[in-house]
């Protein structure tokens, strides 16, 4: 606002006997302030707020103030959000009679102005005196879940109440129409989005955002666990890609002592294994006798029977004879070290931190199967020439806390990642570092401070399409459906990784021998790939200066939130773009949004719309579409799948690894988009924005 206008506004206030009444008279006789943006009415109101602070007058009589408050309440229901706070402050509405304010909000609600009623309630902090179900139901029907989240945001009791209500609506026997019926004819109603799937997704987002105990929502949690059970049976008996031990671990941790899940487990066992094997597993997991059908109780083995669960349930997913088909560790077993104390880790630090060292780094965590929270790293693998170190991270972090030395791990990791003389190899390192930060918050800025890092995922993107057919089928005869790192290992070293332990329970101790060998192989193969590519990059379609083009020598400078808001649409990685030559300054391996095509699962439609605004080629599943349709579209059109939660486990097995990405559903579309763009190294320029039809 110009200085002259400010002075004119202030002279006007000084000349009024009652500036508060004068402002109301102006607002009541004008309508320019009702639109969006900063109107003249907004500037005048803001200046009066400042002027009152600088010229405090004596207290206004209670009767006069009440009259002004009654008038301003009539304006609040029509004014834009930017006028609410100044008017509430000027007319001291927080001191007004609470019942009177509640009555006014109730009047707005009865008129059908549900969003306005909720926003005014938040501004006046009236939520504790309102019915959370009554206030939030019409907002959910209008697809305004963000307003609902903000409405309960500062009140833990209301958060719990809302979650319990939503969980009740997700009970299988509950009739959703009982909720929607009273709101027939509701304007801007999106009843088609008001279903168990959408509500379940909202529950998980709220549980994550507000850090509420999931036990508060048994219906939603049980349904998610049931989907996990179905998925585990699919992996074991249909896809045949999960070992028996691995499968049994996950079944036991998923079902526990939940009688409802035990009942469904018995049904699945009978369907997939037959009654005899179902009876054996029931005994093995200690399922109560009264849960079993009469036919099964007769087939239960005697308690003293020690025989192992037999071949009846065995899926032919893995045999020793097939080991020759997979990558084998070229080092003896005694060179794999499982480290559980800080004393044991000293030998690891000494070797890993040597100048000029090349280190293969990988991490493992227990699959979440779509449950709340980010995965926490359970095993950190570091491979150097002829040795692999497996760090039991939960045990080490617990020991460090007991000893009062929480900085041990962050100090080592920051020293490792910031040293440009040590080459760190990984595959999809961004995801690993994100999980590491969730495990140890002191490591949240590691990615911004890294030097000398080689992410072989970028090699994979450059190299796979450039391979000759001879390389692709080397010594294998037939193209195998390998994915991601396994496919890269096959292309470069001739044999793929054995991924049967990928979905293991990595938190369970002791680790099985198969898990130890798998974890060591995942890290050590990075050294062999890198060595082979550096020796002969041209034969893999790569440039001769491979290391120079791959090693990230400069760290990404941290930026303030204010700076990030200005530039994030142009450079989601957080690196500043200088001048107008954005297109020309794309980093090596970076792609433009026009070259990036995705298919968004139906729970990520907001993300799809946001990416389309940035110029990305987006297709979106509709609410009624089955998740598997995303895989069909991805294969037919060469798109990357963006999904979340449990569907990721199914979809990633149907396309090449690296072609399916799991998005954090608890974040807003903007943050999700930044995550996707950063992961796939997509750089957006000003010409990309709104370049596609919306």
From TrEMBL:
GO BP term, pick one: nucleobase-containing compound metabolic process
UniProt keyword annotation of Hydrolase present: yes
CDD domains (alphabetical): mut-7_like_exo
Segments of skewed composition (Polar residues): 566-579
Domain called 3'-5' exonuclease: residue spans: 336-538
SMART domains cross-referenced by the UniProt entry: 35EXOc
Region of interest (Disordered), residue spans: 562-581
Key words, A-Z: Exonuclease, Hydrolase, Nuclease
Entry's Gene Ontology molecular function annotations: 3'-5' exonuclease activity; nucleic acid binding
Chaperone listed as a keyword: no
Lineage: superkingdom: Eukaryota
Name of the protein this chain belongs to: MUT7 Exonuclease
């Amino acid at each position: 606002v110009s200085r002259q206008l400010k002075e004119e506004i202030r002279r006007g206030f000084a000349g009024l006997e009652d500036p508060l009444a004068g402002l109301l008279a102006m607002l009541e006789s004008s309508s320019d302030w009702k639109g969006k943006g900063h109107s003249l009415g907004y500037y005048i109101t803001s200046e009066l707020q400042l002027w009152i602070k600088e010229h405090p007058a004596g207290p206004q009589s209670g009767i006069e103030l009440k009259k002004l408050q009654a008038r301003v309440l009539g304006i609040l229901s029509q004014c834009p959000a930017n006028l609410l706070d100044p008017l509430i402050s000027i007319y001291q509405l927080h001191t007004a009679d609470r019942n009177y304010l509640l009555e006014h909000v109730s009047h707005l609600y009865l008129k059908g102005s549900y969003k306005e009623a909720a926003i005014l309630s938040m501004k006046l902090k009236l939520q504790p005196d309102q019915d959370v179900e009554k206030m939030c139901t019409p907002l959910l029907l209008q697809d305004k879940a963000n307003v609902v989240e903000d409405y309960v945001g500062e009140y833990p009791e209301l958060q719990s109440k809302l979650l319990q209500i939503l969980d009740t609506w997700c009970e299988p026997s509950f009739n959703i129409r009982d909720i929607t019926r009273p709101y027939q004819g509701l304007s801007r109603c999106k009843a088609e989005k008001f279903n168990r799937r959408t509500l379940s997704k909202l529950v998980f987002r709220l549980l994550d955002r507000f850090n509420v105990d999931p036990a508060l929502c048994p219906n939603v949690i049980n349904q998610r666990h049931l989907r996990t059970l179905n998925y585990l049976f699919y992996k074991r008996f249909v896809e045949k890609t999960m070992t028996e031990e691995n499968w049994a671990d996950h079944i036991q941790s998923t079902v526990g002592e939940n009688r409802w899940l035990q009942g469904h487990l018995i049904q699945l066992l009978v369907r997939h294994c037959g009654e005899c094997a179902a009876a054996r597993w029931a005994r093995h997991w200690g399922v109560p006798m009264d849960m079993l059908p009469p036919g099964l109780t007769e087939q239960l083995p005697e308690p003293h029977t020690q025989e192992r669960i037999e071949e009846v349930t065995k899926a032919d997913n893995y045999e020793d004879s097939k080991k020759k088909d997979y990558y084998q560790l070229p080092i003896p077993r005694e060179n794999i070290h499982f480290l559980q104390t800080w004393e044991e880790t000293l030998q690891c630090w000494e070797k890993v931190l040597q100048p000029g060292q090349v280190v293969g780094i990988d991490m493992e965590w227990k699959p979440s199967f779509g449950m709340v929270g980010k995965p926490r790293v359970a095993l950190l693998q570091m491979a150097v020439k002829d040795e692999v170190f497996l760090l039991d991270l939960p045990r080490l972090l617990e020991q460090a806390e007991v000893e009062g030395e929480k900085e041990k791990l962050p100090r080592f990791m920051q020293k490792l990642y910031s040293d440009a003389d040590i080459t760190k190899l990984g595959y999809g390192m961004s995801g690993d570092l994100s999980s590491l930060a969730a495990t140890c918050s002191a490591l949240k800025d590691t990615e911004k401070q890294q030097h000398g890092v080689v992410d072989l995922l970028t090699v994979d993107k450059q190299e796979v399409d450039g391979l000759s057919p001879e390389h692709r089928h080397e010594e294998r005869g037939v193209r195998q459906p390998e994915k991601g790192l396994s496919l890269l290992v096959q292309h470069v070293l001739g044999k793929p990784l054995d991924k049967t332990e990928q979905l293991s329970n990595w938190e369970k101790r002791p680790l099985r021998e198969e898990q130890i060998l798998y974890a060591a192989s995942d890290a050590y193969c990075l050294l062999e790939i890198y060595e082979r590519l550096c020796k002969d990059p041209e034969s893999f379609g790569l440039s001769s200066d491979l290391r120079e083009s791959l090693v990230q020598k400069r760290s990404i400078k941290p930026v303030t939130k204010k700076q990030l808001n200005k530039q994030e649409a142009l450079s989601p990685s957080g690196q500043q773009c200088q001048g107008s030559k954005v297109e020309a300054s794309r980093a090596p391996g970076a792609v433009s949004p026009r070259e990036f095509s995705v298919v968004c699962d139906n729970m990520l439609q907001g993300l799809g719309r946001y990416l389309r605004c940035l110029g990305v080629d987006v297709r979106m599943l509709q609410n009624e579409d089955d998740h598997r349709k995303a895989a069909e579209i991805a294969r037919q059109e060469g798109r990357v799948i963006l999904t979340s939660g449990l569907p990721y486990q199914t979809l990633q097995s149907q396309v090449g690894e690296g072609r399916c990405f799991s998005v954090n559903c608890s974040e807003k579309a903007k943050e999700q988009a930044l995550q996707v763009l950063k992961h796939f190294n997509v750089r957006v320029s000003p010409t990309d924005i709104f370049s596609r039809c919306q």
